[in-house]
Amino acid sequence: MSNQEEVTRLQAELLVAQALLDQARAATKHTIVRPLTETLRHEKRRSERYNHYFSVLLLRSPKLDHLQLARAASATLRATDVLGVLDGSGDHHVFDTNRESVRASADALVVEGAEAVVAVLPETDKEGVQVAVNRLRVAFTADDQVTAGYAVYPDDSTDTDELISIAAA
After folding, report:
1. 3-class SS letters over the chain
2. C-alpha distances in angstroms, 58 versus 2, 40, 48, 69?
3. Which tens digits make up the pLDDT trace of 154-167?
4. Ranges of each domain in the chain
5. Which pLDDT belongs to residue 153?
6. Most buried residue among 1, 41, 61, 141 by CB atoms closer than 10 A?
7. pLDDT tens across 25-44, in order?
8. CATH classification of 34-168, choosing from 3.30.1330.10, 3.40.30.10, 3.30.70.270, 3.40.718.10?
9. What is the pTM of this model?
């Protein structure tokens, strides 16, 4: 077999392997990821029905990637809090609230262009989100340069997109 034939054979094998990997990622993505807007709409309906608050918390760091932020946040936040990632194009991805699956599966949190980690904190008012921010601050050092922004429904806004904008400011 010539070198050119070997290269052609290896390229074909690589294409098959990439296709299988893409299928596996797509299958995982459909079972784990849902849009943040869907989660916020659900929380908004629940909050309106039961007259509750909820908060949106956004974490950023120029030093840490979104995986490091998400792992620390998942270890610190309550089990009922919903964790996700905000990417550079403005798309939001929310992950299974099962903290063990978040910690164990780095692939579940891989979002190309991720810029921030976002958490939805059900039944959390301004005091509660400030407590959550203080718990998170303990998880990071000053060198990590983590910034945390938040917004509370309905105090800061009743519009879910605006809540994200306020938390991101």
Report:
1. CCHHHHHHHHHHHHHHHHHHHHHHHHHHHHHHCEEHHHHHHHHHHHHHHHCCCEEEEEEECCCCCHHHHHHHHHHHCCCCCEEEEEECCCCEEECCCCHHHHHHCHHHHCCCCEEEEEEEEECCCHHHHHHHHHHHHHHCCHHHCCEEEEEEECCCCCCHHHHHHHHHC
2. 56, 14, 23, 10
3. 999 999 889 988 98
4. 1-32, 34-168
5. 95
6. 61
7. 555 443 334 567 777 888 89
8. 3.30.70.270
9. 0.66
Residues 44-83 have pLDDT tens digits of 999 999 999 999 888 888 888 777 777 777 777 775 666 6
